[in-house]
Amino acid sequence: MILVGGASSRMGADKAAQAWSGRRAVDLVADLARAAGAQVVITAGGDYGLPFVVDPPGRAGPAAGMLAGARRLAAEGMSHGLFLAVDAPTLEPSDLATLLDSPGPGAAFAGYPLPAFVALSALPADAPSGLPLWRLIADAGLAAPTCPSERRLRLRGANTIEERAAVLRAWTAGSTGWC
Question: Which residues contact 30 (CB under 8 A, 6 or more apart)?
């Protein structure tokens, strides 16, 4: 599931629709999900040509979108979800291996609520509106492995024009240790 909701106020433009080397961020993240083994790819927060769930009304936040997506994934017969942020379109399947191989209810890197690999049954069905995403991840009891330093820039993603420029420069330069 790709979180695409929010106002993109810090970016000043729709993060999902922004081009990264000629492709929309949402399409790059969808390809990442498929490369990582996702059988179903949906978005939470908007229609970008993929199956989607709408964000709950009001300013419920990304945790509410994640829970709405988790319900949809469960309805599709999935037991686990790989939750990705649309503002991190330069992630690679190898960046996710540690999370996907984690035992128990899943994992998210320490200090980063996304990406996360989660047993859907570990997510609370009745989380309060406005719950911070990091709190939802913590409450699910996920493992929190340390992110290798060379992956942090692309893991953190791009929430501002300046962050996007820095990530895009590193990504298009093809640097392997681009942190």
Answer: 2, 41, 50
